[in-house]
Automatic annotation (TrEMBL):
Ranges where the Glycoside hydrolase family 65 N-terminal domain occurs: 13-269
Protein known as: Maltose phosphorylase
Positions of the UniProt region annotated as Disordered: 762-783
UniProt domain Glycoside hydrolase family 65 C-terminal: residue ranges: 699-760
Entries under Gene3D superfamilies matching the protein: 1.50.10.10, Glycoside hydrolase, family 65, N-terminal domain (2.70.98.40), Maltose phosphorylase, domain 3 (2.60.420.10)
Annotated NCBIfam families: PRK13807.1
Pfam families the UniProt entry points to: Glyco_hydro_65C (PF03633), Glyco_hydro_65m (PF03632), Glyco_hydro_65N (PF03636)
Sequence similarity: Belongs to the glycosyl hydrolase 65 family.
Residue ranges of domain Glycoside hydrolase family 65 central catalytic in the record: 325-690
Length: 783
């Protein structure tokens, strides 16, 4: 693969305009602030291929399900993150010709995402049809401190000769979702208006009545003498769901005309519908009052604070450095944890695919990032989000015919299932395991066991009820079985006894009974309250223990490998390396039938279980399974390489760990899976973070202690990251085989560094060296 973007530690840079790559760049250069997100579409008109995307968090549309063959149990709709008001638009006309990079010749094009300060900029010279040249420079951001505000500075300079300019800043809600099932338009207009110094639109969704109001104000400046008066004529425009105004003026040769566009976007999720338009106006006017430079300074400060607490610094390898910052940057752009109604969509706000909805990705991949880098309240909110959906998850189980228990949806916006492929909707029930695991992870990490009595235990009990009913006991095999599932590996459907699903189900049942015992003795009132609320009986608890102890967890007696599913070893096993590379990616080259029959694994499956339950398996077991499954894994899910990287690191396969790290961290920057035009793989970015902190850093939490067993790839002269742990703030620096941990926080930290237990007081630091024999973090703990 030829790297396209320039390597720089703080910036993503595209030099030269390549229309073919534009949609990929639109994803990669997206900006967001957790409240809204914006693909890197151009401000001016663009007639070439482009996926327009302006998204408001939590504003979605229940698009009626479309399937060829309806199956009972399918949800009525697929929730879609909505393409919302296009607030960035500025049409540009130079001497009567519309500026459009699909028709003009483009010179010196540079697009830059500045991750340090949270801005997107672009500059280029366009040669128009009559040979006139115009230079354009733009900078925009969505404000972190003023979350409703988007600001743009757009400068046009006619080169060498004067020109008549028309600049038309506008707001346009005549937008569509490319993935709309029935080519419907999702918005109805409420109002639009424009005057010489403002424009606004207000719209509502055709279903669910989400409302969005956008208000725009602007300033115009010309280079040259300080108070130069220049003559501007303004013409207003409005039509259904559109409002804007055209500013006509003459620019002298080489004179720069700068338009500052300030937009406030507000939604009925946060404000009363009647007050929306007024609120948008008030916020936009406040932004104008502050001015572009002040807003930009505030943006820089806000990002500086994020980086101060959460940067990962890698020295000696700029490619890896850029990549990890890009991943962290996108995660911060997607979810801030301030709004407990929100979650983390697999593509964040960088595209439509996956609908911006919640997947198991959050529990399996994202929670660890927030546990270590944010206030514990953020991870707690993500858990409470699922607690609030418990009733819906029970309804979902009932809809599929279960008498009790909860089956969380595979994809959701509001707790209802909205995925409609049977092999996923009905069969990827392993998501229930991840939800239980996240509760465990949170409690282990934070020590907040009160969460269990308050929310966690009730969820665990309902998950366990589901598993109780979903298993069946086989006399023939003397074990409980789980038949007809799809594991994390979506390249096999309707298989029996997927090891991962069975393992996580058994583990959930065991953990639930353990929590029940603990609660009953330590917080009897909390236990009694939950038991009464859900009618929990001792017989149920006993049954759960029985199932967890006798669940089938099949292992090949000869090789000692856990069987991904009952029939896995009947397949032809041929390493990916022996496939003709022209067959990859399989999902674009092979028929589905061929994929299903093959041995190729889309993403970590057995290995996912060994990663989650890493403290229960010794290194040799992990090695056997890794050596067997890794060579047949194609990583066609972005969620795969990170888990492989972590396990490889643990096993001492440092080159593999590094290879997988680059693959996960540069997945979008280098467009590995050839699908970044749909949006960035945001949830897997949390996996990338894990591959550094849990992989190279070897971070685990065991028995209330933070375990570190760091190493760094050979090409890195140093690696440094920060994690929060129970009030302590630890800066971990790995360099030359030595690790130093500084406690910059207020509380002491119970630490295990390379197997040595240390109480690291606030303000103190400690160093240790890796014993090359030590291997895995869990081995170090055991040792
Ligand atoms: C993966 C799922 C994942 C989804 C969203 C799919 O390709 O196989 O595990 O939940 O993407 O990221």
């Amino acid at each position: 693969m030829k790297p396209y973007l320039k390597v720089n530690e703080w910036r993503i840079i595209e030099e030269g305009f390549d229309a073919e790559r534009n949609e990929v760049s639109e994803s990669v250069f997206s900006i967001g602030n957790g409240y809204m997100g914006q693909r890197a579409n151009f401000e001016e008109r663009y007639g070439g291929p482009s996926l327009q995307g302006s998204y408001m968090a939590g504003v979605y549309y229940p698009d009626k399900t479309r399937v060829g063959w309806w199956k009972n149990g399918y949800p009525e709709y697929f929730a879609k993150v909505l393409n919302s008001v296009n607030w960035i638009g500025i049409d540009v006309e130079i001497d009567g010709e519309t500026l459009d990079l699909s028709s003009a010749a483009v010179e010196d094009f540079v697009r830059t995402l500045d991750m340090q300060e949270g801005t997107l900029s672009r500059s280029f010279t366009a040669v128009l049809s009559d040979g006139k040249k115009v230079r354009v420079e733009s900078l925009r951001f969505v404000s972190v401190p003023f979350k409703e505000i988007g600001a743009i500075r757009y400068t046009v300079t006619p080169i060498g000769e004067a020109a008549q300019l028309k600049l038309t800043p506008y707001l346009d809600a005549n937008v569509v979702n490319k993935d709309s099932n029935y080519d419907e338009k999702f918005w109805d207009g409420i109002s639009q208006d424009s005057g010489v110094d403002y424009a606004n639109v207000e719209v509502r969704t055709k279903k669910l009545d989400f409302r969005v109001a956008s208000h725009m104000v602007y300033e115009l400046a010309a280079s040259g003498e300080a108070d130069q008066e220049f003559h501007v004529e303004a013409e207003t425009h409005k039509r259904d769901k559109f409002a804007g105004l055209t500013l006509s003026l003459r620019a002298e040769a080489d004179q720069s005309i700068t338009l500052y566009k300030y937009v406030a976007n507000v939604t009925s999720r946060d404000h009363e519908p009647e007050s929306l338009a007024g609120k948008a106006q008030e916020l936009a006017e406040e932004a104008l009052e502050r001015g572009f430079d002040a807003l930009l300074d505030a943006q820089r400060e806000a990002w500086a604070a994020k980086w101060r607490d959460g940067d990962i610094s890698i020295e000696g390898d700029e490619t890896a450095q850029q990549a990890i910052r890009f991943n962290i940057f996108q995660l911060h752009q997607t979810y801030t944890g301030e709004d407990d109604r929100l979650n983390i969509g697999p593509k964040g706000f960088t595209g439509e695919k996956y609908g911006g909805s919640t997947y198991w990705d959050t529990e399996a991949y994202c929670i660890p990032f927030y546990l270590s880098t944010a206030d514990p309240g953020v991870a707690r909110n993500l858990l409470v989000y699922r607690y609030k959906h418990l009733e819906k998850a029970k309804e979902n189980a009932a809809k599929l015919g279960f008498a009790k228990g909860a089956l969380y949806p595979m994809v959701t916006m509001n707790g209802e299932e909205c995925h409609n492929e049977w092999e996923i909707t009905f069969e990827e029930i392993h998501r229930n395991g991840a939800i239980a695991y996240a509760i465990y992870n949170y409690v282990e990490y934070t020590g907040d066991s009160a969460y269990l009595g308050e929310y966690g235990f009730e969820v665990l009990a309902e998950l366990s009820r589901f598993w109780e009913e979903r298993v069946n006991y086989s006399e023939r095999r003397g074990a409980y079985l789980i038949l007809g599932v799809t594991g994390p590996n979506e390249y096999e459907n309707n298989v029996n006894n997927n090891w991962y699903t069975n393992r996580m189900a058994a583990w959930t049942l065991e953990y639930t009974t353990e929590v029940a015992r603990k609660l009953r003795s330590e917080e009897p009132d909390a236990f009694a309250a939950v038991a009464e609320k859900i009618g929990l009986t001792d017989a149920e608890l006993e049954k759960w223990t029985d199932i967890s102890e006798r669940m089938l967890l099949a292992e090949d007696p000869e090789s000692g490998v856990f069987l991904q599913q009952d029939g896995f070893l009947d397949k032809d096993i041929l390493p990916v390396a022996q496939l003709d590379p022209s067959h990859l990616p399989l999902n674009q080259k092979w028929s589905w039938d061929r994929i299903l029959r093959s041995c190729y694994i889309k993403q970590a499956d057995v290995l996912q279980g060994l990663f989650f339950l890493g403290d229960r398996y010794d290194l040799e077991t992990k090695r056997r399974n890794f050596d067997f499954y890794e060579p047949i894994t194609v990583h066609e899910s972005s969620l795969s390489p990170c888990v492989h990287s972590i396990l490889a690191g643990e096993l001492g396969y440092t080159e593999k760990a590094y290879e997988m790290y680059l693959r996960t961290s540069r997945l979008d920057l280098d467009n590995y899976n050839n699908d970044t035009e749909d949006g960035c793989h945001t949830t897997s970015m949390a996996g990338t973070w894990m591959s550094v902190v849990q992989g190279f850093g070897g971070l685990r939490v065991r028995g209330g202690r933070l375990v570190l067993n760091p190493f760094s790839p050979e090409s890195w002269t140093s690696l440094s990251f920060k994690v929060g742990f129970r009030g302590a703030r630890l800066k971990v620096t790995v360099s030359g085989g030595k690790t130093t941990v500084e406690n910059e926080g207020a509380a002491n930290a119970a630490l295990t560094l390379y197997g040595r237990e240390i109480e690291l007081a606030a303000g103190e630091s400690v160093s240790g060296e890796r014993d090359p024999q030590a291997g895995a973090p869990d081995e170090a703990v055991r040792g």
